[in-house]
């Protein structure tokens, strides 16, 4: 009876850690699939006195949005924010389709860095899938061995997600430095927040699976006591 209770408690801990990992996977998919990684905005008077142009992009597509200057906060110098009403136009990056580079505000995105950031995110998603399969096998078959490869998969996927964010930020800086004709204000958006939280949750889940795979609890194990009287 005692062994059954311990086994049920162990499965409960595994399921909870898997829930944390599943939330991380969901946030990663949400972030990777959206175009709100970075928001770009020139000054309000860049286009004309009535409308201004703002943009945002992710790993796959870039979008421009025409906003009314009257809707922009008078104290704000740049065009935006993007949640204001306006007409949007989104297109895939040309280097994914025709191989050409994209020009936005007379600047060109860093093709190699953008592609590398996307590939890191995709490879991270593949490792998440492998880790999920391992956990499903561990729960359904009751085999603790699958916890260790799951731990490696989730931890590495979290690291790859963080690397994807770092490379993407470098691509944004390279994009801004490609031309100084039009000064732009940039701000990392909510998709980056989703992916960053996902990376942290995946690393925590990976570490949890590693601890659960140990034959003993590191908090309960203590060195043998010595009898000073002997």
Helix fraction bin: 40-55%
Q: Count the helices. How many?
A: 5
Terminal residue distance: 38 Å
Number of strands: 5
Largest sheet: 5 strands, antiparallel
> Radius of gyration over alpha carbons?
24 Å
Shape: elongated
- Unreliable runs: 225-230
Mean pLDDT, to the nearest integer, reads: 83
Beta-strand percent range: 5-15%
User: Class by helix and strand content?
Assistant: alpha+beta
Q: What order do the strands of the largest sheet run in, or round the barrel if closed? A: 4-3-2-1-5
> SSE order in H/E notation?
HEEEEHHHEH
Description:
There is one protein chain. The chain has helices at residues 2-32, 94-97, 111-141, 147-177, 190-213, and strands spanning 38-41, 51-57, 61-68, 86-92, 185-188. It has 230 residues and is of the alpha+beta class. Helix 1 runs antiparallel to helix 3 (111-141) and helix 1 runs antiparallel to helix 5 (190-213). Mean pLDDT is 83; it is low at 225-230.
List keywords for this structure.
230 residues; alpha+beta; 5-stranded antiparallel sheet; disordered C terminus; transmembrane helix; VDCC_g6su; transmembrane; PMP22/EMP/MP20/Claudin
């Amino acid at each position: 009876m005692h062994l059954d209770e311990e086994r049920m408690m162990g499965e409960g801990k595994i399921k909870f850690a898997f829930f944390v990992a599943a939330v991380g996977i969901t946030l990663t998919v949400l972030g990777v699939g959206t175009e709100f990684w970075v928001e770009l905005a020139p000054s309000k008077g860049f286009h004309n006195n009535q409308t201004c142009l703002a943009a945002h992009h992710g790993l796959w597509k870039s979008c421009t949005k025409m906003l009314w200057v009257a809707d922009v906060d008078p104290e704000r110098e740049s065009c935006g924010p993007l949640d204001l009403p306006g007409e949007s136009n989104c297109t895939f990056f040309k280097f994914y389709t025709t191989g050409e580079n994209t020009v936005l505000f007379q600047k060109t995105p860093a093709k190699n860095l953008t592609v590398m950031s996307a590939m890191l995110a995709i490879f991270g998603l593949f490792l998440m899938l492998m880790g999920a399969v391992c956990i499903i096998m561990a729960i359904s078959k009751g085999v603790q061995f699958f916890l260790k490869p799951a731990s490696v998969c989730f931890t590495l996927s979290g690291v790859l997600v963080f690397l994807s964010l770092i490379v993407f930020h470098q691509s944004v800086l390279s994009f801004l430095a490609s031309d100084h004709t039009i000064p732009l204000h940039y701000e990392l958006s909510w998709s980056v927040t989703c992916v960053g939280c996902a990376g942290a949750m995946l690393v925590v889940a990976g570490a949890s699976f590693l601890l659960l795979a140990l034959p003993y609890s590191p908090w309960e194990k203590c060195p043998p006591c010595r009898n000073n009287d002997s």
